[in-house]
Amino acid sequence: MATILKLFLLRFLATKSFGGVVASLAVLALPIAGVLKVIGLPLLLVLGIVGLPIALVLAVVGLPILLVVATVGVITAFLGAVLATGLALLKVALPFLLIALAVWAVIRIFRRDKAPAPEDTVGASI
Fold first, then answer.
1. Please, is 110 exposed, middle or buried when counting C-beta atoms within 10 Å of its C-beta (0-12, 13-18, 19+)?
2. CA 13, CA 72: separation in Å to the nearest integer?
3. 71 partner at 20 to 30 Å CA-CA among 1, 17, 61, 120?
């Protein structure tokens, strides 16, 4: 089973360049890290939880340990920066979005009450 898993990972990683592999691993790890951060885990713990499986995947494939450590470091630094700025932007943008949603709902409620009744044009006389 381990041989089949290693073969599958090697086939997946061999068809892409190293930059493509790093980008695809980062794209896979970002939603997981976002969910863990929203749940309330500290940022360093989230980065450790996300970085460990990436390191294991790269080590199982057989990359040199220095390359594995450097790649995991780059991915976790990128994820840390994205999570920190994304949550800061969310804290700033969320009140504006909620106010805009409330205004839109109020306008929609008042427009529904004042909408003119549709005219019946099927039997209109000439």
1. exposed
2. 15
3. 1
pLDDT higher than 80, residue 22: no
Instruction: Specify the number of domains making up the chain.
Output: 1
- Whether 34 maps to a domain, the answer reads yes
pLDDT above 60 for 71? yes
Domain residue limits at 16: 2-113
Instruction: Phi first, then psi: give them for residue 116, nearest 5 degrees.
Output: -70, 150
Residue entry with tokens 């990359």: 63
The identity of residue 60, as a single letter, is V
* Domain assignment present for 126: no
104 lies in a domain? yes
Q: What is the DSSP letter of 64?
A: -
Residue 32, Cβ neighbours under 10 Å: how many? 14
Alpha-carbon distances, residue 78 vs 21, 45, 68, 98 (angstroms): 15, 15, 15, 29
| Cα end-to-end distance, the chain, whole Å | 81
Residue 73 placed within a domain: yes
